[in-house]
Specification:
The protein has 3 helices and 8 strands. It is an alpha+beta fold and 149 residues long. The strands form 2 sheets. Strands 1-2-3-4 form a 4-stranded antiparallel beta sheet, sandwiched between helices. Strands 5, 6, 7 and 8 form a 4-stranded antiparallel beta sheet that branches.
Length: 149
């Protein structure tokens, strides 16, 4: 999918429309689709950068980039999500590629750590992440920590 327009903004730069779309997409996938009752708004959004991928004005892909020390000693990429309508189009791969580029540009000498749902292990390994923890449950879903050197 090549027609994605990317924007990276600090929380304070997000307009109400963008924030609504981000929170709606995260809720649609992480709460409703995955049938997982949890508080998505965890007080880390205000300190993170928000990478949005839009196609024809619609939010189809999103991650937040957390600075070092906020979640882990390393910078982190989290809340990785693509719209159900954009799946199997390459949008998820494009999203991770762009998120890694932006994170490396901001923190060039740092590794990147993520907390990944276990079923996505192979997906993240394709971007150079390696498992660095045992499997653990988070909100009832199996996760692993992964590190990209």
């Amino acid at each position: 999918m090549n027609n994605i327009i990317w924007t990276l903004k600090a929380f304070a730069e997000l307009n109400p429309f963008e924030l609504y779309q981000i929170l709606r997409l995260r809720s649609e996938v992480f709460v409703v689709e995955q049938n997982c009752i949890f508080l998505d708004m965890d007080d880390l959004d205000g300190k993170s950068l928000h990478l949005q991928g839009r196609s024809d004005g619609e939010l189809i892909a999103y991650v937040r980039i957390l600075p070092p020390v906020l979640a882990y000693p390393e910078p982190s990429i989290g809340r990785v999500v693509t719209s159900p309508q954009a799946r199997r189009t390459g949008a998820g791969k494009a999203l991770m590629k762009k998120a890694i580029e932006e994170t490396v540009a901001m923190y060039p000498s740092k590794s990147i750590k993520i907390g990944a749902q276990l079923y996505l292990k192979k997906f993240y390994e394709g971007f150079g992440f390696e498992q660095c923890s045992d499997v653990y449950l988070e909100d009832g879903i199996e996760h692993i920590k992964m590190l990209r050197q």
